[in-house]
Amino acid sequence: MGPGLTTQDIRSDARELKFTVESDRAATMRDWARAHLTADPHGSGDHGDEYRTSSLYFDTDGLDVFHRRRSFGRSKYRIRRYGSSDVVFLERKMRTKELLSKRRTIVGLDELPLVVAPGSHRDWTGRWFRRRLDARRLHVKAQVWYHRTARVGVTPYGTFRLTIDAQIEAAPATELTFAASRGVEVLTSEAIVELKFRHEMPALFKRFVEEFSLTPRTISKYRIAMTALGEAEESAVSSRA
Q: For residue range 136-179, what is the model confidence (pLDDT) as tens digits?
């Protein structure tokens, strides 16, 4: 069992803006980002800013996370893997109007069975994740893949980040394994652009939004993936009734 590493970040001033754009515009934005921002330190590829991401998302049997019911609408639990790495990240992301909280633990890929194994495993660094899944009765529901381009910059408030997620695909999942095969296409001709920063929007991001005439929207990769897999949100069902 590896040593593991857990980080927890609670921010009252974290900001995230998301946009969906056509694939050809995303390519232009990618060029813009490469001209104005630094490559993500964990990226690869010709520009040192790309990587393939795969995530296992958890939900209840009644899909309370997907439908945003009660407190389930404020938090997501997922296990994320980058490329073919032999480590994965156990993650909880929770947002309220006042703050953004992220908790992340690195464990070995071979430790995934401990997430559902019987027994307490008190010495395991991912025990908190397993306990939260049990408490909220969460199970694996979907696997989502996408290709990410990530560029970063720095302000007095810290690092700010621009990401472009394309080639998004999804498949139903019930096991704690990362499938290599792809699923159905999600946002077939679009990409998701996200700006992350603290306090005030950096001047460079203001320029980016203005230059490309972008309008923020609320979007979740898990929810659009489940929609692509045939689920309908309750509000959509009600509007058709």
A: 999 999 999 999 999 999 988 888 999 999 999 999 999 999 99
In 3D space, the residue among 173, 172, 167, 199 whose CA is nearest the CA of residue 186 turns out to be 167
Residues in the chain, how many? 241
Cβ–Cβ under 8 Å, residues 146 and 57 = no
- Where b means 16+ CB within 10 Å and e means fewer, 182-219 reads ebeebbeebbbbbbbbbeebbebbeebbeeeebeeeee
Please give the Cα distance from 44 to 194 (Å, whole number).
19
Q: What confidence tens digit (pLDDT) does each residue in 22-74 have?
A: 999 999 999 999 999 999 988 899 999 999 999 999 999 999 999 999 889 88
Boundaries of domain holding 138:
5-240
pLDDT-above-70 percentage for the chain: 89
CATH code of the domain covering residue 35? 3.20.100.30
Q: How many domains does one find in the chain?
A: 1
Q: Which region holds residue 205: left if phi is over 0, alpha if psi is between -120 and 50, else beta?
A: alpha
161: tokens are 């980040």
